[in-house]
Amino acid sequence: MITTAVIPVAGLGTRMLPYTKEQPKAMLPLFVGNLVKPTLQIIFEQLYKAGIRKFIFIVSRGKRAIEDHFTPDYTFLDSLRKRGKNQSIGELSGFYKKIESSTLLWLNQSLPLGLGHALLISRTSIQDHRFLVHAGDTVLTAPFEINKMLEICNNPNLKDVSCICVRRVSDKHLLKRYGIAEINSHFLISRVVEKPTHPTSDFAIVPIYVLTQRIFEILKRLPQDDSSEIQFTQAINHLIESGLTVQAYDIGEIRRIDVGSPDTYHDALSYSFKI
């Protein structure tokens, strides 16, 4: 069973300045019905509903607001109770119960060396053969889709198979903004490319992955690139070249909500009502 998730939230969020000068990008608010929640709380609750119980947050200096938000504060609930804010009490109490029935680890990425490096930091904290990786700035409008993905991945026959979420995108401008996956007729991934100048596939990568421990062996051997980062996409390609299977999981028409840049965040606020 896949019960561990790594959630990288250490990025500087430079595209969302000046908001992210003091506040982490993962704490940007989104609508959920008539409530407003931080993006990261929505991700946490979706993963909890899918059976994840160990959460490894990769953070950096200046991300204290995240840890504060995920620390139950019952004194605050008492204050709300005195003011008759019963709906807010119920919502926060439910959130606190999920936190207290989970294991939360906070690991520090002291230098911005990319997603590959962030995953390497988590390697000694993961005991399971396979685990989930979920970007801290992306939400699916259909939370049950993660359940479906994990149900497939929990098949014992697929214990050595990695999986990447994808979504077909016809707009080449958008494809250039994200990574793409080249996929064969059996829906196996043959190559991934980060922000391609000339996209060779119309399947955009949705940054939700199921990985095996083998990824750490590859990441440890990878050198830093010209920007001093350990590239995760390069590690995935090495995984494929070594003969291991990387399956594509198509989320279909389900929308990916992305709070990573001003234009995508504008759309995210509009579509988050559908969560």
Short note summarizing the structure:
The chain has a single domain (4-274), classed as Spore Coat Polysaccharide Biosynthesis Protein SpsA, Chain A, CATH 3.90.550.10. 34% of the residues lie in helices and 24% in strands.
Strand order of the largest sheet: 5-4-1-6-11-8-12
Helix/sheet category: alpha/beta
The end-to-end distance, rounded to whole angstroms, is 26 Å
- Rg for CA atoms: 19 Å
The main pleated sheet reads as: 7 strands, mixed
Helical content stands at 25-40%
Tell me the name of the CATH class.
Alpha Beta
Highlighted features:
275 residues, seven-stranded mixed sheet, two-stranded antiparallel ribbon, Spore Coat Polysaccharide Biosynthesis Protein SpsA, Chain A, 10 helices, alpha/beta
Account of the protein in words:
This protein has 275 residues and is of the alpha/beta class. The protein has a single domain (4-274), classed as Alpha-Beta Complex (Spore Coat Polysaccharide Biosynthesis Protein SpsA, Chain A), CATH 3.90.550.10. Helices cover 34% and strands 24% of the residues. The protein has 10 helices and 13 strands. The chain has a 7-stranded mixed β-sheet with strand order 5-4-1-6-11-8-12, with helices on both faces. Strands 2-3 form a two-stranded antiparallel sheet. A two-stranded antiparallel sheet has the order 7-13. Helix 8 crosses helix 9. It is globular, with a radius of gyration of 19 Å. The two termini are 26 Å apart. 37% of the residues are buried.
